[in-house]
Amino acid sequence: MPITDAREFRTGETMLISIVVPCYNEEAVIDRFHEHLTRELRAIDHDCEFVYVDDGSKDRTLSLLKNLAETDPRVRYVSFSRNFGKEAAMLAGLRYASGDAVVIMDADLQHPPELVKRMVELHAQGHDQVIAKRTRDGDRVTRVLTARAYYRLINRFVDVELVDGVGDFRLLSRRAVDAVLGLTEYNRFSKGLFAWVGFPSVTFEYENAVREEGRSKWTFGQLLNYGADGLISFNNKPLRAAVYLGLLLLSVAALYAAWIVGSAAVNGVDTPGYVTLLVVITALAGVQMVMVGVIGEYIGRIYYEVKRRPHFLVQSTNAVPAAAPLKDQLKDQLKDFVR
Ligand code: UDP
Ligand code: MG
Fold first, then answer.
1. Which pLDDT does position 174 carry in this prediction?
2. Listing from the earlier edge strand, what are the strands of the sheet with 16-23?
3. Are 153 and 287 within one domain?
4. Cβ < 6 Å from ligand 1: which residues?
5. What average pLDDT does the segment 69-92 reach?
6. Is the overall model pTM greater than 0.90, yes or no?
């Protein structure tokens, strides 16, 4: 049984469940979300805390969160100095969460709060990750088809398995959270990071709700970029593919050269070939540009990694980070080691 001693020891005891919620311009739903969630959580026999991360909202989200924190002592808020993106917001939430298990969910009520109870139950059965998988019922056909094609493509490339419909809505055990926090890379693709961490996991399906208020922050271009990020930030296979494509083109060129030389030897040299030449040159130039682009993508990533900038800056909060950044953890371990 893949259950840790710690978990067996704890089963049946009260746990602290942290709910991490990234919020960007969610003034229209945040109060309703909190009310709905707390109502649902009454059915759970565990303690709860809420970690709301205000990702540099330009509306009243922060002041609403501060109000919530005043009326409900379980509410922690962390506010960024500007918009750093959902990935950074989730990372901050995980750092500031002190629970034995952490549930990550969106503020827009698309992740039904009533599922948290189910997640906690499944966690108690010994699963480190309880993953909610949305069905694509009610989605536009184009969206369903592009998603399907994308996942087929990406799973051919990346080393971890990514599943269509699986997003950030999930419960993570403390050790899974610590493992995710141990991955300090700057370019964070959480879907991949969660899959990389592994541990006993269970997936269950839920019906995705339509967004009640406010708007989705995703434009088509952003989705495209997100897809490319997923592809590139998780493996170096596109580079490998570039090598193979180069080799393929080289062998085609060699065959073609042999054929040209052969036919020149037999028939003598004839001048036409201008069109072929142009097509070949432009095609090759295109292929080269793409490959330079692929290499550039990786170099761009290295560039961001070596800067070692923080993932986010906190401007105001009523909480303290529970998990020290890895650097500090390492420092502590080294201290023991030297002693
Ligand atoms: N979000 C965020 N920072 C951003 C964009 C979004 O923290 O820069 C939050 C947002 O408030 C919401 C969640 O991430 O709680 C998901 O965002 P959204 O609903 O726009 O995405 P979708 O559900 O369309 O994928
Ligand atoms: Mg949403």
1. 92
2. 201-207, 129-135, 166-173, 101-104, 16-23, 47-54, 75-80, 314-317
3. no
4. 22-24, 26, 55, 83, 85-86, 89, 106-108, 110, 216-218
5. 92
6. no
Residue 199: give the domain boundaries: 16-219
In a domain? residue 315: no
Same domain, 241 and 162: no
Ligand 1 atom nearest residue 215's Cα: 20
Domain count across the chain = 2
C-alpha of residue 36 to centroid of ligand 1, in Å: 18
Q: Sign of the C-alpha dihedral, residues 193, 195, 200, 205?
A: positive
323 within a domain of the structure (yes/no): no
Structure confidence by residue, pLDDT tens digits, 291-316 = 888 888 888 888 988 988 899 999 98
Closest by CA to 111, choosing from 206, 216, 214, is 206
Which two tokens mark 244?
């193979």
Q: What is the pLDDT of residue 327?
A: 52
* Eight-class DSSP state of 196: H
pLDDT surpasses 50 at 48: yes
Shared-domain flag, residues 162 and 22: yes
CATH code assigned at 45 = 3.90.550.10
Most confident residue range from 94-103, 150-159, 208-217, 224-233? 94-103
Q: Is 48 a member of any domain?
A: yes
